[in-house]
Structures are given as C-alpha cells and as structure tokens.
C-alpha cells in the first residue's frame, strides 16, 4: 500500500489514494497503522475516494478503528494531497464527508498547497442533533460531573459532537485522566470530543483537545470551530478568533449572517511510504 503521512498542526494521519487502489478492512488497518511503536504512527487513517456528488470523498478512521464523520485538519490535508499529487488542478474544491459536502479554497505557493480555507458549515446547537442527552433544547454553560469535579460545558456539533469546557489554565489539566471521563459520559450517546478552553482575550483562545477514539491530539479543526462558537455564545469572544493549539494556530470565523464557520490553517506533508498491508493484518 502506497501512503502519504501528513499533518495539520500536528494532527497527523496516514493518507491513501483510493482512486487508484482498494483497501479491505480499513478499520483494522487504521488501528495497526496508527500505532506509534509498531505501525507508521498517526491519529488515524484517511482514504481519498471518488465521489458522485463532489470532487472527492474523504473517508476517515480514528486510531481505534472507529469511523469519524469529519476532521478539520484532515480535510485541509486532503485538499493539499489531491492538488500536490496531481489529482486535480482546481484550487476550489468540494469534498464529500459523512458530515456533508465541504467547500475548500486552496492557497498555492510555488506549485504546492501551503494552507487551506474550509467552509465548515453551520454549527448544530440542538441537543438531540449534537447529540447530547438533555432536557434543554440547547446545552450552553450547563453543568457536567467528571471525576470529583463539576465543569460547565457548551455542546456543539460541527459534523461530529463536541463538548466545550472553559477553564482557568488548560496547561494545568491532566487530560489522560480527565478526557476519558468526558468521552465515555453516558450523556453522549456517540461519545464526544472535548475541548478545554482558556480565554486569552476577545480575539484569542488557547485550547487542548481530547478526541474520541484518538486521545489528546495536537490540534482539532472541528473542535476549534466548536470552541469559537461556544466562546461567542458565552460572550467571551468576538466572531473572528485565533485558536492556539499545541501544534500551532488556526484562524476561525463564525459568519453569523450566513450561519457558517470558516477555518483557515496550514497543511503539511511529512513523507511518502509503502507498507505491506498483509503484515499489518496479522
């Protein structure tokens, strides 16, 4: 299997061009190839496939083999992959995902994509659609018990479910302990990605993220979008915000007139490789 290792702000995936080859049992391959000791090492596996309704399809698997609806950092790398690998000459693309069709604008320098702007669509706030179990129509600044503490969360879906929690200092948190307590909380029927947010000022926030199926990652694009929506809803920031993640910064804008969220950030290629998939499946 030919593959390309790529990352968006350190949120890394193994990418496979499935316009040219077919993979059987991608869930199992995702688990084995994501292992950072015995595999390639990644937060998951992303397959690039043909689409009947868009330019390409993005099929995403988390490191534990579970299927993901969307990945903001991953889809930026899909845009870079298809342009840099000569699968398209377009700089404006549509990519089909389980969370719907996303529109990408590619920023090219010296023949290669350096950054990508993605129209991530409208944030979903209705509790039943996030989904989060609640007696309220929307979950904004609501209490949740995790361990021996009570936190306040705002729930948003950006194609996948997010619980945004505001804290005094994100670097003081033990996410290895705290993250699973949110991810597996019974109020989230599909599990949840949890963003822990420190508000720096009305134009800047700092974020750490625990992603369902992958653990703490260096960045999460959909999570950054959800975090900005939650920050605005709670009155902490304006509509355009720089999000500081462990892997770098994303620029997020919630255009409330159009009710859509734009995400702009880099996409990087690490290396090209080839691996014997039959050995991965042993």
From TrEMBL:
Pathway(s) it belongs to: Amino-acid biosynthesis; L-lysine biosynthesis via DAP pathway; DL-2,6-diaminopimelate from LL-2,6-diaminopimelate: step 1/1
GO molecular function, one term: diaminopimelate epimerase activity
One Gene Ontology cellular component: cytosol
Positions bound to substrate: 11, 62, 72-73, 160, 193, 211-212, 221-222
Pfam families xref list: DAP_epimerase (PF01678)
Entry's transmembrane regions: none
Class in the EC hierarchy, top level: isomerase
UniProt signal peptide: none
Record localization: Cytoplasm
Residues the record marks as site: Could be important to modulate the pK values of the two catalytic cysteine residues: 162, 211
GO annotation terms (biological process): lysine biosynthetic process via diaminopimelate
Keyword field contains Amino-acid biosynthesis: yes
InterPro entries: DAP_epimerase_AS, DAP_epimerase_DapF
UniProt keyword list: Amino-acid biosynthesis, Cytoplasm, Isomerase, Lysine biosynthesis
Quaternary structure and interacting proteins, as annotated: Homodimer.
PANTHER family according to UniProt: DIAMINOPIMELATE EPIMERASE (PTHR31689:SF0), DIAMINOPIMELATE EPIMERASE, CHLOROPLASTIC (PTHR31689)
Family from the record: Belongs to the diaminopimelate epimerase family.
Function: Catalyzes the stereoinversion of LL-2,6-diaminopimelate (L,L-DAP) to meso-diaminopimelate (meso-DAP), a precursor of L-lysine and an essential component of the bacterial peptidoglycan.
Protein name, per record: Diaminopimelate epimerase
Organism: Diplocloster agilis
